[in-house]
Amino acid sequence: MTDQPVSPSWIDVGQTDDLRDVIHRAVACLAQGGVVGLATETVYGLVASALDARSVDRVRRLRTAEPSRPLTLLLKGPEEVTDWVPRIAQVGRRLAWRLWPGPLTLVFPRTMADGLYDRLPGDARALISPSGAVALRSPAHPIVRDVLRLLPAPLVIAMVATAEHPVPWTADPLRGLSGVEMVIDAGPTQYRQFATVVQIDDGGWVIERPGVVDAPTLRQSASLIILFVCTGNTCRSPMAEAICKLLLARRFGCSVRELDQRGIVIRSAGVAATNGMPAAPQAIEVIRSLGGSLEDHRSRKIAAHLVRQADCIFAMTMDHLDALLEAVPEVEHQTFLLDPAGGDVADPIGSDHETYRWTAQMIEAMLEQRLDEMGF
Question: Which residue range forms the structural domain that includes residue 357?
C-alpha cells in the first residue's frame, strides 16, 4: 500500500453475497498496510494495523474527531487486557472483564502498559499515544471482531466526524475520503452514540467522555463482587448474602444500602435453583431478627457469566464447589468453601426455626473469619 490518494472501495454489506469474502479482503488490506473504514457498535472509524507506522500515521492525519486523544487499540477480548497492561489496577481488570466486548474504552497511564505495548514498533507507539496514555477497547460488532480474530496484532481506530455527522453512526462521513483503501458499510450502528471513555489509575476510575455505559453501570461493574452459592438459593446462600451485608455495613459504619457506594456488591445463587422463588420463611425470620431482610429475595440459578464476574465465590459444600469448578474451571483461584476449616454448611431446609438460627450463627462466625482474611 502507498500513501497516494485513493478513493475507497465501498462495500455495502446488505448487497454482498459472501460476508466472509469481504472480511478476508479487509484482513488482507490491513495486513498490507491499508486503512479500512469499519463499524463498531457505537460509531464508524478508520482502522489500521498497529504494527504499521505508515498506516497508523495516515489514520492519525485523517482523524477529525477528538484529535488530542490517543488512538484506541482494539483487542479481541478481555482476556488480552493484562497482556497489554500487565500492571493493570484491579478496577481496570473488573471493568474489562465485565463490560467487554462492549462500548467502553479504557485509558491507562503508560506506567501500567509495559507488556505487548512495548513490542509495538517505536514509531508506531509514538503515533498511537504521543501523550503516553494507552487506550484499549474490545468492540462487540461482529464484523470488526471477525477481522480482529484473523489478525495477529491489534488495530488502531480513529473517528472521522463532520459538521453534518458529529457522531458518525453511519458510514457517510467516510464516503469519498482520500487515503482509505476500503469502507465496509454495515448500516447504522447499534447505539448511534459514542463509547464511554474511562480513565483508570491506581486510585480508581473517572469518566473522560460520557457515552453508552452510564456511571451507575460503571460503578457496579467496578465493584468488588462476592458471590455465595448453595443448592436452591432459598436458605443458606441468601442467609450468607444478608449476613455478609450486615457484617460489612457494621465494619464500614454505614447502612446496608450504602455498600454499593463503597464499591461492594454481594450476591447469591444456587446450582439447582428455580428462578424467582422467595427465601424460606424460617430464613426470613432469622435474618429479620439479626437486623437484615430477605423479604425481597428471589432465587437465582447460577450462570457462567455470574460466576466469572465474581471476585470471590463462597460455596456452602464441597459438592457445590465441585459443580462450580466443573462448569467454570477458570475461577478456581477465587472459589472457596465458606467454612475456613473445610467443612460443609448443612442444608436446613425443612427444619425448625432453631435449626435455621443455629445455621445463621454458624454462617456468621465463618464470615467473620473470611472477612478478616479479605482485609475488611
Answer: 223-373
Instruction: List the grid coordinates of 64.
Output: 477529525
Catalytic residue status for 251: no
With a cut of 90, say whether residue 176 has pLDDT above it: no
Residue 109 inside a domain? The answer is: yes
- Domain check: are 17 and 160 in the same one? yes
Per-residue pLDDT of 16-31, as tens digits, reads 999 999 999 999 999 9
Annotated catalytic, 352? no
Active site residue 267: no
Reply yes or no on whether the pLDDT at 2 is more than 50: no
Residues 170 and 234 grouped into a single domain: no
For residue 194, what pLDDT is reported? 96
Of 181, 214, 247, the residue at which a domain comes to its end is 214
Are residues 37 and 168 part of one domain? yes
Q: Using CA atoms, how far apart are residues 51 and 47, in angstroms rounded to an integer?
A: 12
How many helices (DSSP H) and strands (DSSP E) are in the chain?
12, 14
pLDDT, tens only, 41-79: 999 999 999 999 999 999 999 998 777 789 999 999 999
* Helix or strand holding residue 369 (H, E): helix 353-373
Of these residues, 110, 146, 347, 357, which one is catalytic?
Answer: 347
CA angle 132, 135, 136 (to 5 degrees): 145
What are residue 72's DSSP bridge partners? 135, 157
Options 69, 93, 94, 236, the catalytic residue: 236
Length of the chain: 376
Count of domains forming the chain: 2
- Give the amino acid at 174: L
Q: Which one from 29, 93, 94, 230 is the annotated catalytic residue?
A: 230
Question: Are residues 307 and 208 part of one domain?
Answer: no
| Residue 68, domain member (yes or no) | yes
Neighbouring-strand partners of residue 335? 313
Are residues 176 and 276 both part of a single domain?
no
Q: Which of 139, 110, 101, 121 is nearest to 33 (CA)?
A: 121
> Pick from 161, 187, 214: which residue ends a domain?
214
